[in-house]
Amino acid sequence: MIHYPRALILAGLFSSVVLLGPLSLPAQAEDMQRREATIMVSGEGEASIAPDMALISLSVVRDAPTAAEALAANSKAMAEVLADLKTQGIDDKDMQTTDFSIQPQYRQQPTDGSGGYVAPEIVGYSVSNGLTVRVRDLGALGGLIDRAVKLGVNQGGNITFTNDDSDAAVEEARKQAVAKAAAKAKTLTDAAGVKLGRVIEISEAFARPMPEMMAAPMAKMAAADAVPIASGENRYTVTVNMTYSIEQ
What we know:
The chain is 37% helix and 36% strand. The chain is of the alpha+beta class. The strands form 2 sheets. A 5-stranded antiparallel β-sheet has the order 3-4-2-5-7. It has a 3-stranded antiparallel β-sheet with strand order 1-8-6, covered by helices on one side. α2 packs antiparallel against α3 (141-151). It is elongated, with a radius of gyration of 34 Å. The two termini are 61 Å apart.
């Protein structure tokens, strides 16, 4: 085996690095020249349809001196609400418990006169049971809310109007967004005196309708024969981002 001096080996490695280094610069420049010029545009499409379904939150809250009493009162009221909803045609699959809590209620004690801290006293308990109901017959929504309030629902009231099948509306909004983005790209390249090339990249962002809030608290609805409900329209919005190449 031939042993080369250490200095000779290091010199050889160094010369290799020196020789390879300058060669990478022309390669980078050539890559920059080959890189395509691009234009990025966006378009927004929107489609509106009437909702055919509503999600409503109903809560039963009961207070009592003990947790057991509050729980018993709450369970009795909620059982009546669930039974009544079933008589109105609401399926079990369209009712879901979404919140349940047992919380102590405190009363702040007066100070002992020396400025020391006095722990608050527990004076009772509050039990809350929340229910989300999917209502597929919007014409029955006002009467359903009124009956629920009379049976003991005393909190909640958030309504989300939605659609069982929104695919057609979203598809229409998507087509509009693409058409607007393409038209914008054509306008910009024509104005710049260049030719629009192929599509390099497409992405989209989809915005669902925001929940609609009921106009009055549950406590004020008990006197109404049927709560007036205006469902309006759901607007489905799609934003499309497109990247095109530019042909010089």
